[in-house]
Amino acid sequence: MSWGFTRHDALRRFLSVQYGRVRSHNSNLFDMEPDNLPSTNDSSSAEEDFDSLVLFGMLRGNVVGLRYYTGVVNNNEMVALQREPNNPYDRNAVKVNNVNGEQVGHIKKELAAALAQIMDRNLAKVEGIVPYGAQNAFTMPVNLSFWGREENKQGVLDHMKKYGFKLGPIQQSSQGFQGSFSQRAHSQYNAPSLPAMQMTTEQLKTEFDKLFEDLREEDKTRELEPSEAVETSLLPHQKQALAWMVSRENSNELPPFWEQRNNFYYNTLTNFAIKEKPDSVKGGILADDMGLGKTLSIIALILTNFYDGKPFPVGKDIYGKSSLQDKSLVEDDSGKSSKKKHAMRKIDETHEIASSSKGETRPKRRQKAGKAKYTLSDSEEEERIPRKVKAPLACSVVDDDDFATALFGTLPAVKKKTKKKGIVKSSTDISTKYDTQMHQRTTLIICPLSVLSNWIDQFEQHVKADAKLNIYIYYGAERNKNPDFLSKQDVVLTTYNVLTHDYGNESPLHKIRWLRVVLDEGHIIRNPNAQQTKAVHSLDSERQWVLTGTPIQNSLKDLWSILSFLKLKPFTDREWWHRTIQRPVSMGDQGGLRRLQALIKNITLRRTKTTKVNGKPVLQLPERKVYIQHIKLSPEERQIYETMQNEGKNIIGRYFNEGTVLTHYADVLAVLVRLRQLCCHPHLVPTSLSGSLSGSSTPDELREKLVNKIKLVLISGSDEECSICLDSLNMPVITRCAHVFCKECICQVIYRKQPNAKCPMCRGEVRLEHLLECPEEESDMSDHEQKWISSSKINALMHALTEQRNKDPRVKSIIVSQFTTFLSLIETALRESGFTFTRLDGSMNQKKRTEAIQSFQRSHNDSPTIMLLSLKAGGVGLNLTAASRVYLMDPAWNPAAEEQCFDRCHRLGQTKEVIITKFVVKNSVEENMLKIHNKKRELAAGAFEGNKQTSSEIKQARINEIRTLVDL
DNA sequence: ACCGCCGGGTGCC
DNA sequence: ACCGCCGGGTGCC
């Protein structure tokens, strides 16, 4: 299999950017004429590698032409330098802009002539601080600092010298956040009494981890009762989230790092001042751990703070009840009250109309009697809720139409609205009033496709029927792209992919000013250059919320995109974020870290599962017990196992002697997988996989063997990491020497080393056209046709299940294995014993998955009591709380994968004690795997971001693992 | 710009 | 005077 031309080209383009980083260190090049200054050939490297830049030196220059521009600066204010190559008077021109992006002037031409080359070729980033900005009518001084890669330093210095500029050390009046030489008079930045110490990577990491701890504050512990329209009663920590979010949305307070001084608003980071009040950040980051109910919190927010601090209207008696009864949650109430009342009345009218016009279109909902309690799901309550999501949710990415149809089928109200012209019409009238006279009403929620149906469910579940919330799912080929229609909804739900697809393409989503935009799994936009991120940043809204469980996933860099989305000035421009926070922090500057902490504290609410509310843990999950059940193989099974084990030991032992374990890693894994499979069931070892790679035959045969190998590697679950990027495999491909890497990683290696690229694992030849991808999972139930027999493990499982059924037939169980064929064998046993079950594995499309999950989670009598689950199926969001028993049929390589799997039922919503049984075959590779688990856990506990294992360490660790596994 | 620079006007005291 | 000096015009890149 090889790739088409377009792929190649795209890749080449990608690589040309990446590869610019590897550049010549030959500084002699700088001795040539200016025009021969070496180019980094990389327009973005200085940006991307911001953290690794060093300070070359500083220089006092002049800004001229002030009188032609409106931008002003203060004393000690930061300014940005920007090349202006198309200036008609001087192609070397360099503009000077203030923090707001307004032009202040130009760099004087002699200096600009020197700078232009350096800036254009990205040899240094030049930053300015104006020491005396005030009251300069024509020119002003500027202190320039030059930052770049170490290897470019001498060249830049020489180049500047040639033009008569000498970069010096730090000048007296200079300002900035360069830690040790920060000489700011402002108290916030007083030099520490002790000499500034560069923090180690580890210290920094620790500080990082602490960032999100201990965010307890007054305003985050206050609780707020949700609007009547919220069906579910909130847990205390959710009421806290609600109070915090409402107060942020209605807040008028200055964003972090802004102060009011005289008649100006003053940014204490950049010293920028402006007359107009900077917009308050009406939103933030809700970074609660998974399972704490971020979705519910947002739904409560939408309903509780719908307009002007007032809740979404419910039923008929809207004005009298909800609006007046609730104390206004708005911060400043001065002088506006009469106007507001007027406004409210209008809303009420519109809602009256809305209610009557839409009443007929809504599906019949549960007739409410009394307050609904948020019992932690399960039986009775579930039973009372007629689930409308009966239609299978087709979320297939390929077939948009299907999905849309399925979704509309799910929400009849929406469907009818789109089809029936009359109803749309009436809602038009209503909404015109809403929009033009008063305010935006629509909340836009953007989420990954995988959780779209979850949002729909949650709205169904948590919104009271007579609240009549309009929800439109903007998804599928038939989606309604009329901005007027969309802005009449209360909630529009869409996915990142749809948003990105629409972007720049007459996107209605980008034409509307939203009341509120919510990003679910907000870390998705962490790459500032991704189209997705740009699409999100170009949305227009009053209030912005980011939901994420992992606010800083890899590093501080990831935060910028979120801050920019939150419209946090001046960070919307990446330069100011870099200069004031990111670089200082990564350089170990304490002040920078303090500022970062202050910032996070201001905009983030984060609770973990262990956070306490009023002295009690935020989540009181029932207990979880893990048992290991040892299995003794039957004599027949043992005999087959021993035979395979001896064979395997011979093979692997030979590799050890030859020192070629890693060269034959795929073969080693094959042996191990077969042993593991034999622990489960003898039929799992497919005869087709028994051939070895040596003595390769026809190309077709070779190809097939390789494909089998990559399948094996993937199925084995062992090689989850690519040994080039040391991250989890992304689009895995296999080389001819049978090693598996991310497609991107190995392609980079091939391009870099061409034409003689070698495999990073075994130094064998690798060629692009030899790479093979793993073909789509064909349902190869290879040896499934054999006559069915049980196995020791299956017997043990069935024994446990039957015993459980006798005790309590309603208890539900999850049966987990990494081998889908094993799950199929178990199916037969389950059928024989009359168990009802459903199944979830990687080969199922979204529609089938949703179907399986929903039928299992239901508590009807005919709902299956068992879920067969393949270990890696389903993302972290998978919720299987209906089960309280987990049977792990075979140990995973990575203990974290097991944990994650257990958490699918041991999470918010679980009311029963969870009992987990791990089946482990005595005297087998499985027992040895448990030993490795402990080592891996230790490793994970001590692993810091900075000191990831090197690839050679990983190799050695793998060799050691193999030794342990096969007792060699 | 309360500068520098340009270039025209001007030229004993 | 192929100078100096004066004072008006002028002024980013």
From TrEMBL:
Main location: nucleus
Residues covered by the Helicase ATP-binding domain: 443-569
Gene Ontology cellular component annotations, sorted alphabetically: nucleus
SMART domains hit by this protein: DEXDc (SM00487), HELICc (SM00490), HIRAN (SM00910), RING (SM00184)
Location relative to the cell: Nucleus
Domain RING-type: 722-763
InterPro entries: Helicase_ATP-bd, Helicase_C-like, HIRAN, P-loop_NTPase, SNF2-like_sf, SNF2/RAD54-like_C, SNF2_N, SNF2_RAD54_helicase_TF
Record-annotated Helicase C-terminal domain positions: 793-955
GO terms, molecular function: ATP binding; ATP-dependent activity, acting on DNA; helicase activity; hydrolase activity, acting on acid anhydrides, in phosphorus-containing anhydrides; nucleic acid binding; zinc ion binding
Record-level GO BP terms: DNA repair
Keyword Zinc-finger among UniProt keywords: yes
Region annotation (Disordered) ranges: 329-381
Pfam families according to UniProt: Helicase_C, HIRAN, SNF2-rel_dom, zf-C3HC4_2
Keywords: ATP-binding, Helicase, Hydrolase, Metal-binding, Nucleotide-binding, Nucleus, Zinc, Zinc-finger
The protein's name in its UniProt record: Helicase-like transcription factor
